[in-house]
Amino acid sequence: MKIIKVGLALVVTVSLVYFLNTSHNFGSPIPPLGKFLSPFQGFWQNAQTSSQNSETLSIPGLKDKVTIVYDSALIPHIYANHDEDLFLAQGYITAKNRLWQMEFQTHAAGGRISEVIGKAALDFDRTQRRLGMGYAAEVSVKSMESNPTAKLMVDSYTQGINAYIQSLDESSLPIEYKLLGYEPEPWTNLKSAYLLKYMAKTLNTGERDLEMTNALKLFGKETIELLFPDNEGVADPIVDRTNQWGFKPTTLDSVQLAVPQQLVNIMPFEKSPPDVGSNNWAVGGSKTASGSPILCNDPHLELNLPSIWYIIHLSGPGINSMGASLPGSPSIISGFNDSIAWGVTNAQRDLVDWFKIEFKDNAKKEYKLDGSWVAAKKRVEEIKVKGAPIFYDTVTYTHQGPIVFDSSFHGANEKSHFAYRWIAHDPSEEVMTFYKLNRAKNHADYMEALNHYSSPAQNFVFACVNGDIAMRIQGKYPVRRKNEGKFILDGTKSSSDWQAFIPSDQNVMDKNPARGFVSSANQFPADATYPYYVQASNWEAYRNRRINQVLRELNKCTPQDLMNLQLDNFNLKASESLPTFLTNLDSTSFTGDALEAYKILKAWDYKNEIDSEGASYYEAWIRAFVPMVWDEFSNDKVALPWPSTYLTIKLMKEQPALAFFDIKSTPEKETVKEVIQKSFADAVEVIAKWKKEKNANPRWASYKDAVVNHLLKQKAFSYNIEHGGNSSIVNAHSKTHGPSWRMVVSLEKAGINAWGVYPGGQSGNPGSPYYNNLLNLWTQGKYVKFTFTSESEKMKGKELAIITLKPASK
Amino acid sequence: MKFIIQIIATIIVCFLLQSFLPWWTLAVGASAVAYFIDNNALPSFVAGFIGAALLWIGMAYYLDQATHSIITEKVNKLLPLNAFLLTGIVGGMVGGLSALTGTFLRSK
């Protein structure tokens, strides 16, 4: 009897403990509840106050003492006596604040999310792998490690992260590990390479070659030329040096093959949304109040928590630099030092192509090239899946790149195969660019640093305390023949391959232009006399013109004036389209909602401020108008591209009777006028419905309903925010995307003055007051004035805490 | 009296164990206390439950107050029950069942 009782009680108790020590999934995932709820090691332990402990830690591998001073915004100022120690400390302190995010983002880059959250992520993981992210990162880490300086840098950085990981115990694990029931693994150099490929994927995947191929087949060459021109002739290019390029360009002997005539039955993977972009500019001393240059940068990305950026100050031998770093990658990406400042925007250029491949048979072991069969390579991707067996995915590679889609993945049939050629698959050493930029003293150093940079192509803005300003559109670009890269390419002939690359010194660049400023906002890069064919799917049309218009007019400008420009909410798109909309609108019969909308729109000042109702009505209207115009391009059988909004508005004004304005689904023949009338009615209905649902007025911030999501889309760790702006506006804040980092640097001879902010916080821990301390500043349009000194003693009185790292005695 | 002693002993022993060892030593502590105190089955279960629940809630409350509820507010949005209540129930169930096991082991 006793044995039965004891046995039963024991079994029940042990089962309960076991149950509470493991994660489960009953429809929604459940953390290991005992572990998670225990106040001795669970989530309760992640709660922190704003005070930070000063501490001295012994770190193996360190050469000398390193002092890390946290300032009041939890920005670490690292003072080290050796390069190795500096990067080790950067790795350590970044991991201390952002470990979970760093690992999660590299897991995402490498297609390893299924390992953490299960089957639901398998398709995402397979996409990452089949785009060759793993292949690209492996190539990249090889070239990183073959350069002694780069190797030293990434090795030390990795060592620092691992020193932090080793210091963790159950209670100090970041909360996300506790929630999902897993633990961090050792960091590797490969993970740092993954992170840079993750950025490359975000910034390079706006291409639409498959969609354009379908459009060409369905609508013909003339329509394509009208609706998808190489250059929409919007306004100033980034660099205008008409007839002054002065070099002999590389030319190709072979002529590009005829464009393909076929429909591609593949639904392409999700693209980077058009609100990924950026602004940067540098204003020369002739236009500033101080007489010194001012440089500004705001990269637009998806806004997440923890933020993609981490502010850090690195001070050591030959380096004193500060700015935004990417957690997971050494050095500073957008920042300044004692002599120069630099910033980045995406260059947009088409660096992705799809080559149509002819395989001998379904085994896909050989493919046709110049009339003979060539062996393809196979790469087996092993994908661990939480709660399920390992998934093995075999990906075929030709010399161009991986076959992303086949019968096992999103491909409808075995007839069409396309190899994915992407510049990020090529060896490159971006880490050296940032190593050198962080230490650069002048324009020559900046140019030398950029020579190491290939991908993802960026517009690098530059300013120096000596007064120089510059712009260079740096990347590794294939020399293109006309139309090359817009459509799928013939992979059976080596003549359609990328034959040569533009020599780095022939890239688009400019120094101290006569207009007194340089600027870029993802627009077309160069004037018509630039000797290379330049092509992309999504040149920016509005922000760039607004920025240049304001910069041209500014004189004796101050950092505050340029902060105001970063926060500028003027909707140029609306100012160019709404008057035409309204004059074409027959408002005589309007009553009720329609009349109210009409009145609000007529009175609107084209500014997307938090309280503007006009901005909401305009947004609803243009969102109804554009799809109504391009109904011909909504096809559920094949993927098609849409012409740009800029071109749509231009056609509306210049060719109101164009056949595309006819709405296919109605028997009547519509022109622009009818489409405007109908889309207005739709927009009024949308807003009326919204008002009823929300029981509120459609203020722009309410209607936009912006959110800064936690990386796991976990609502409890996310924030809804109210902020002005929109995509295509200088303050490019849409529902989920926007200025992920705002920086303003005044390069005065007496010393640098710099400000910056991002929508997040220095700590990645949702239980820390520093999780969102910068988010509130950002939302209000405020900046942090940086404390920037190369002497740690001068930080006295400004510190929140001091962390001293000492070499561990062996 | 034994009932009160078991509650207090459970709190002290489990506090010490969990300060250094994994959370499930809560079960080890609660059953050991019950074994030595030798209560009847039902009071033992209840005492184990109350001891463990009080310890967990008390400790959680201490951390929560020291940090102005910064994490509790957020985690409350992701749990089906209030975080304190759930913590008490989970801790209490483990404490109670372990105590019962300890008591059965002792009884003849």
**How many domains comprise the coordinates of chain A?**
2
**Major pleated sheet of chain B:** none
What is the averaged pLDDT score of chain B?
94
Which stretches of chain B are poorly predicted, pLDDT < 50 over at least 5 residues? Answer: none
Amount of beta strand of chain B: under 5%
**Proportion of residues in helical segments of chain A:** 25-40%
Structural class designation of chain B = mainly alpha
Helix content of chain B: over 70%
Number of strands of chain A: 30
Record field, number of beta strands of chain B: 0
Looking at the structure, what is the overall shape of chain A? Answer: globular
Features:
A: 810 residues; alpha+beta; Glutamine Phosphoribosylpyrophosphate, subunit 1, domain 1; Penicillin amidase (Acylase) alpha subunit, N-terminal domain; 2 domains; 11-stranded mixed beta sheet; 7-stranded antiparallel beta sheet; B: 108 residues; mainly alpha
